[in-house]
Amino acid sequence: MDKANVQAGIQYFKSGNKIAALQNFFEVVKQEPDNEIAWLWLAACTEKSEEKRNYLYKVLSINPNNQNAQKALAELEMQISLDVKSISPSNKIIKCPSCGKILGNPDQNGLIQCESCGTSVNYHQPVEIDKVNKIKQYSELCNKALGAGGNYDEALLYANNILDIDPVNSKAWYKKGVCLMNLERYEEALHCYDMASEIDSQDVDVWNSMASLLLFKSRGNEALNCYDKALEIEPDNRFLWYEKGDCFRAMEKYEEAFRCYDRGLEMDPQNHMAWYDFGNKFATNGQYQMAIRCFDKALDIDSQNGYALTNKGYSLYLLGQPEDALSCYDEALEIDTQHVWAWDDKGDICASLGRHKEAIRCYEMALKIDPQDGWAWRNKGKSLAVLGYHKEAVRCEHKAQEFEVEEDRDRFTL
């Protein structure tokens, strides 16, 4: 047992430094997930009922007979049943910044709409200095937890602590959404993103994250709406255009996807590798004509992009145009004679056309560059067998078995 961190956490707790105590106890449960003492102290450190309950249940899942946890859980449930929260009217006079009229009381989210001119106002109650410091501390700890290998349970606790102090903190709602998304609590995450966007509708990260999650949940049209919101704020953000294009592609709206990629690259017109990547994305969807359009865009910018040439060639081959494909491979091999996969692919296409002697020469070129190319050994053997050189074919197969052969290797590497 990590007694040192447990004892240090208890001392911090007794001295009133709950933040430091939480860090110590989280460190313990990270290393020792079944440390019931640390989980029990985590329950003592948090003020949020939902999390306190979760920690107490964790203790009881480890040791159902833990009387401290049983007692604390019973008291918590009793307190929750008696807890009736009311919103007291504020004595603060709030005036509309547009027309100067006196506004009513804010709703529970701090929002007020002027009945005279319709202006919407976000009202934040004055925050005490110690609360400001706590928010800063919790925010730093939250960021640290998110960055330290993605400790989302810990980060979620800190985000909730911020929201306990400042319920209209948009960044805390956003970070809470990130945590919940990574914990696969998707509907809760969407709720958090909704809250963040209502508080700060100009936060591009919120709209982008919401769009990604909606697309993951196969809600493509809603995702597109979020990308549109983000692009209203940052219309020249090329990465948003790329992601909107990916959304259209996932929805099998390929022309729209191409237009989004094209729009994004207006901000980076010399980026031939981006067109190469988009071509690979279309190819993985089986959209080889669209892929070729992208590879051609890449080649218009850099005619020496051998990777674009080889993948254009393979796309042409899959479209039933082997001679055009071979022309692309020949161009690519003029640029880079050491491109092993280009020699392999050219050999495969020649073999498919019955030109086995030419195929064997291609495989031999590949093997000069990489003697451990199992693909080339195997397919050279197949061509030798077709030509009647069975002993040599068997030797090639034996060599292929010495090395790993990627039977279904993906030429369209993203």
Task: Describe the protein's architecture and organization.
The protein is mainly α. Among the domains are: 3-82, Alpha Horseshoe (Serine Threonine Protein Phosphatase 5, Tetratricopeptide repeat); 93-123, no CATH class; 337-414, Serine Threonine Protein Phosphatase 5, Tetratricopeptide repeat (Alpha Horseshoe). The protein has 21 helices and two strands. The chain has helices at residues 3-14, 18-31, 36-45, 49-62, 67-82, 129-147, 152-165, 170-182, 186-199, 204-216, 220-233, 238-250, 254-265, 272-284, 288-301, 306-318, 322-335, 340-352, 356-369, 374-386, 390-402, and strands spanning 111-113, 120-122. It has a two-stranded antiparallel ribbon with strand order 1-2. Strand 1 and strand 2 form a beta hairpin. Helix 2 (18-31) packs antiparallel against helix 3 (36-45) and helix 8 packs antiparallel against helix 9. The longest helix is centred in the middle third of the chain and has 19 residues, at 129-147. The protein is flat. The two termini are 45 Å apart. Mean pLDDT is 86; it is low at 82-91.
